[in-house]
Amino acid sequence: MALKKHHKIAIGSFTTIVIVYMIVNGILLNGAIVKQTLNHNSLNDKINQLQADTSSKLNELTSILSSTQKTLLNLNDSFKSEINLLKASTTEDFSGVIENSVKSVVTIRTNVGQGTGFIIDGEGYIVTNAHVLVGGNQIQALTYDQEVLPATFIGYNPTLDVALLKIEGRYERLKLEDSNEVQIGEKVIAIGNPLGLQFSVSEGIVSGIHRPGMNGIEAYIQTDAALNPGNSGGPLINKEGKVVGINNFKIGGGESLGFALESNYLETTINEISQEKLGELLV
Length: 283
Hints:
Number of strands: 13
Structural class: alpha+beta
Largest sheet: 7 strands, antiparallel
CATH architecture of the largest domain: Beta Barrel
Helix content: 25-40%
CATH class of the largest domain: Mainly Beta
CATH topology of the largest domain: Thrombin, subunit H
Distance between the termini: 125 Å
Radius of gyration: 38 Å
Shape: rod-shaped
């Protein structure tokens, strides 16, 4: 049966609508695909850029780490060379003493100055002169291994100018000699940081014992071993590697007139401080 005219018009219109719909839908779908492709390409570009930046940063970090490692190795080699020079500059009496003793000596730094200290207990207890800390509100210790560590203030004796500090870790300690056994004329060395020169050693002899100090107490060893600013708080050591005194002061205007608090007074003072503040004896 032949289609009537209005049927043909209806079918034609429907077909046209379907075709138009398919065309529009195709255009929209193609646009979405194009947009997705552009976004994908943009994302790839960002990823590639990020990878390039990351690679660049890693290369930079590797270079910095390599440079730092070389610097540390150079510092270590330089420090070992200094110790060898120190050993060579003293007599054979101290040939084996310096290398062992210097490991227990530290540089004491505050925000206003610096001095020297030494370890008197393996748990990290350090003795120094109290005047080294005056005016400072931060205390650090530079160890033989070139570690800079915060130091805790334990206590002090203002009359004998002795202070006790603590750093974390385990260390070799210096032993105290019986200062009543010290003889005039025996050789000694002073280890310290005069004028900021770390771990410097000066050699001399005991010039006198039981000398009066600025406090009027006859408790000081006189020595001609050179003492300069920065030596304060460092050990005065005999050829057995034991501490006979803690370097304290020098008389200005005179040559080779240094004084160290005798080790027996030092031992008593350390134990008084530790007994009061820690409830135990340290030496």
